[in-house]
Amino acid sequence: MSSFDRATPHAVLGSDSFEHEQVVLCHDPSTGLKAVIAIHSTALGPALGGARFHAYASDEEAVADALSLSRGMSYKNAMAGLDLGGGKAVIVGDPARAKSEALLLAFGRFVASLGGRYLTGCDVGTDEADMDVVARVCRWTTCSRTAGGTGDPSGATALGVFQGMRAAAHHRWGTSSLRGRTIGVAGVGKVGHLLVEHLVHDGARVVVTDVRAEAVRRVVDTFPEVTVVADTEALIRVEGLDVYAPCALGGALDDAVAPVVTAEVVCGAANNQLARPDVEQQLAERGVLYVPDYVVNAGGAIAATRVLTGDSPQQCAAKVERIFDTTLAVLERANAEGVLPGAAADRIAEQRIAGAANARAEERASRAG
After folding, report:
1. 366 is a domain residue
2. Which residues are responsible for catalysis (predicted)?
3. Which residues have a catalytic role annotated?
4. Is 81 known to sit in a ligand binding site?
5. 362 falls within a domain
6. Which domain does 308 fall in, by range?
7. Is 86 helix (H, G, I), strand (E, B) or coil?
């Protein structure tokens, strides 16, 4: 394996922040593949996380995203009760232009070289058909039906976010129904579109936006009652907005959004929504409840484990629906301990990861003795 930029890891990681178990920089000149595979933790099991295909502005930005997303996957999988660690892959480039069969096969060979330490799957910019290609050279993928996987997990992700939103409504307003509530969904791609479907069926008023006109058209063609606004700036300022659901890329909650978002609750599908951790405090000071993204968007990870557990679709759906209970438990713990929901969720996840790591260390020590 070769680094596509030997200065990149140090530039991003620095000298004292080596939190991840392994970071692999992948470069295949013949196909143009440039990718990062980040394994944050395998304390609970193999590192599970999808492969994101995105046009990053720099190699450093790609590495930083892989590090952040893989850490989030460790917490997500721990919070969901899965015996899996956290990892993520990012492929650098515009998927509409750079994606090819040869490039995906090259990516699959890099994943296979890790021998099962990392399990890949669909994410932003990749789909089930892509994983079918990857699976031809790599058996460690969860989304390829042709290889015995579960297919695109977007439906499970959307269901989990919907359940988390219902739990937030119960916590904030005393009822889990979203009927009559105004929900703003930013990003109506694979997950956002399906989330809109759940919300409409529950009787919510839905307002959407997306940078892609075709994504908006697809929603409006299916649900003509949905309102469309020009952009996210307009969406966060909608009068009477009850819930803001960021469902595109990360960093949606920043210093510009926190002071002006009109919603009482923020609960969406996007990973790493907080541009900085202290943005949650800014929201809380205005009475806005932030529901930790990795708690509610774990449905896709749960669905991906069907390839390992052999659960039926019905059993998998039941596990995803329990995100309601998990979310409510996090919000109640936050209240009881006088901390923000993000801190409450982190404590639960970190306790589980640390417990597994300690158990492994004790087992190794016992064998050595």
Report:
1. no
2. 88 (proton donor/acceptor)
3. 88
4. no
5. no
6. 155-342
7. strand
